[in-house]
Amino acid sequence: MMLLITGGLGFIGSHTAVEALRAGYDVLILDNLRNARRDVIGGIQRAASGRVGFVEGDCRDAALLEKVFTRHEISAVIHFAALKAVSESIDKPLEYYANNLDGLISVLAAAGRKSIRNFVFSSSAAVYGIPQKIPITENHPLSIENTPYGFSKLVAEKIITDFVQAKGEMQVVLLRYFNPIGADASGAIGESPSGVPNNLMPYLIQVASGEQEKLSVFGRDYPTEDGTCIRDFIHITDLAQAHLKALQWVAGREPSAPEVFNIGTGRGHSVLELIHAFERVNGVKLNYEFGPRRAGDNPILYADITKAKHILGWNPVLSIDDAVRDSWRWANRQHTL
Predict the structure, then answer these.
(1) What's the predicted TM-score (pTM) here?
(2) How many C-beta neighbours within 10 Å does residue 51 have?
(3) Contact assessment for residue 235 and residue 318, using Cβ atoms and an 8 Å cutoff
(4) Whether residue 135 has a cis bond before it, omega within 30° of 0
(5) How far is C-alpha 96 from the chain's CA centre?
(6) What is the helix (H) or strand (E) element at residue 270, kind and residue range?
């Protein structure tokens, strides 16, 4: 079975590609390299054996998508390709709406024309907005008072739901991620964003390795025990494996409305806890300072993952200690290559 992974050279996409190869899938990656590097392909191939192909291009290119779906026997799609920086989306809303929604529409249309039956969508806990209750279940109210990034994911879910209802053939799973961190245990791939990082872990790594002078922690006046935000940090390998569980489940499902699952650990850790875990596990000292709150950040976010456990048979097994250890191993390997 060939699996098309859009945005497959990004952090989550590349780790999902590795897990798909390990599970016996053939993998075809489509990526425009805006926020990824071509050499990630080599890392994927070092981490897992199997057949992996690559097409450079944008999901909004309908002609390219037609060629991809015509030339390859694609059985399922995992759609990651999107812009994803919350704070950047506030400054560039039109760019986020155009990229994230037009890309999804083009991929859905192409997949629909080729009667692709199985589709997994990369959504986000951002669709919940400011949580009314913790932990967050899939039935939590969704928020239209959201950042452009979060709203683009909410609209994307609606687009998919309407398309499935109209088309009547495609089985879809919507995975709402919390906060992925870590790297593959092989050290062959990890989180390596282009430019200045938007996520916490690559910033920790750059400070620990001397590439950045210090880490700015956004806010120390939140209503939490240590004053920093609490997040549901999930190891990237656990997150990637959830996609394989979703594919296995949806392949045996009768056509119906898309099913939604939270993908996290069900437990919250503060930003300071993660920093201290990185220092303790890796034996390094991080230079950090506290700054003002960042626009769009919620004080506390963590998931209820009961539904994913019971229906998908998925359960996260790796800890934040595993995540910081694997991330630092990946970083050190990059400096020795």
Answers:
(1) 0.95
(2) 11
(3) yes
(4) yes
(5) 16
(6) strand 269-270
CA–CA separation, 153 and 292 (whole Å)? 27
In eight-state DSSP terms, residue 28 is E
Query: How far is 201 from 210, CA to CA, in rounded Å?
Result: 14
pLDDT tens per residue, range 140-189: 999 988 899 999 999 999 999 999 999 878 999 999 999 999 999 999 99
By annotation, the residues acting in catalysis are 149
What domains, with CATH codes, occur in the chain? 2-181+233-263 (3.40.50.720), 200-231+266-336 (3.90.25.10)
The span from the CA of 100 to the CA of 152, in Å, is 7
Nearest to 310 by CA among 259, 254, 256, 255: 259
Question: Helices (DSSP H) in the chain: which residue ranges?
Answer: 11-22, 40-47, 62-71, 86-91, 93-113, 148-167, 200-208, 236-251, 271-282, 306-307, 320-336
